[in-house]
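quick one, two chains, predict together pls
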Amino acid sequence: MIAIIDYGMGNLRSAQKGIEKAGFDAVITEDPGDLAAATGVVLPGVGAFKDCFEGLRSRGFVEPVREIARSGKPLLGICVGMQLLFDYGVEGEGSEGLGILPGRVERFPDHAATGLKVPHMGWNRIDPVAGRPCPILRHLGPNPHVYFVHSYYPNPARAEDVYATADYGLPFAAVVGRDNIFGVQFHPEKSQAEGIGILRSFGEYVALHAETACARP
Amino acid sequence: MGRGLAMLTKRIIPCLDVAEGRVVKGVQFLGLRDAGDPVEVARRYDEEGADEIVFLDIQASTDNRNTMLDVVRRTADQVFMPLCVGGGIRTIEDIRVLLKAGADKVSINTPAIENPDFVNESSRRFGSQCIVVAIDAKQVEPGRYIVKSHGGRDGGRSTPLEPVAWAREVAERGAGEILLTCMDKDGTKNGYDIELTRRVADAVGIPVIASGGAGTLEHLRAALVEGGADAALAASIFHFQQHTVREAKEYLASRGVAVRC
């Protein structure tokens, strides 16, 4: 069972239905105690970075999520949930993040400087990094477009934490992670077939991991 | 498309008028079990590759609210693309329940005009990304426009606001997007008001959705290219299967417009 963390930031129903559409069960939980029993964890997030981090903290999720990351259990951050995986976000007066992946979350340059509108809102193409196969991008089509809506983007300290980039005036990390940790800047649950394919790959990865974990002595 | 170019595609957005939970101004789709059910129609547009969908509650009343919420909930359960809901939103609480039901964005018009701080407050509460300000513009003499409140369809009410300045103001106040309807063009099928669309699109650093007047695929292209809009909203051109969304995308791609096919 995949657990979707509910920490008061936005509607999680689409994420749950998207995972179900992909063929897996998902529960929405407000209880950090539920994470231990989950086979995989999804950390969503809508709104401001600091509000989201405070939401996680006030509901007691900060340490349990870090523990999931350390434990090897699959973890998927979506949008601000992905940004929270990093050390620090510059949004507003700035805020620390979970520090699971090293790096900062930066703001896109102003419209005046680039002529590009912020937020970056709409369907954009993601380009998987050559030579870095990503378990959750296994079902990606040849010209994959996904739905983005954000004004900030992750800037991982380690280039090898980038699985795929998108281009909005500058190339930025659209899919990040390492080992059991994954993060997507876009909304797979709003990205039609391409997005459901990503959720399916994550579900398959979770199932595989659960089997291997059980098989261990 | 070379490296280093922004790949963000232009969006095509079908819009459904909904009253009492039913699609009005009839949608004529072959093979739909119930073409009056907004959920069924949304699913069809999803299959055709629409980039987003807008439900406009044209008869929003208190009684009607729960019906719309149910429509939103059922749509969000089945359709995995962004959903924007407009019409009858007056309060922060109205926005909260719509987002909770599964809307990704809400479109507000009159409350923003009556109380511009509503734009600041709603975008601070829920994030700019989900606050769309709808601007209904009416030409009063060549080249001069005013903003109308209270829904355009029965004429609306005149305000002292001018659309370009108003667009700038709501963008500064935190709106994430502008849905610009040129009332003189709405329903004419004679094409969007390219000039006003361009003026608004050039004036703000947030996306602009052009609305009102789509009659051909070329109209969509003109709004996106000459008009500089980030998205084109259309109703009857799709509802009566004059064209599918997919045909629209193919046409635009063949004319060099970056769209998601």
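The two ends of chain B are 14 Å apart (CA to CA).
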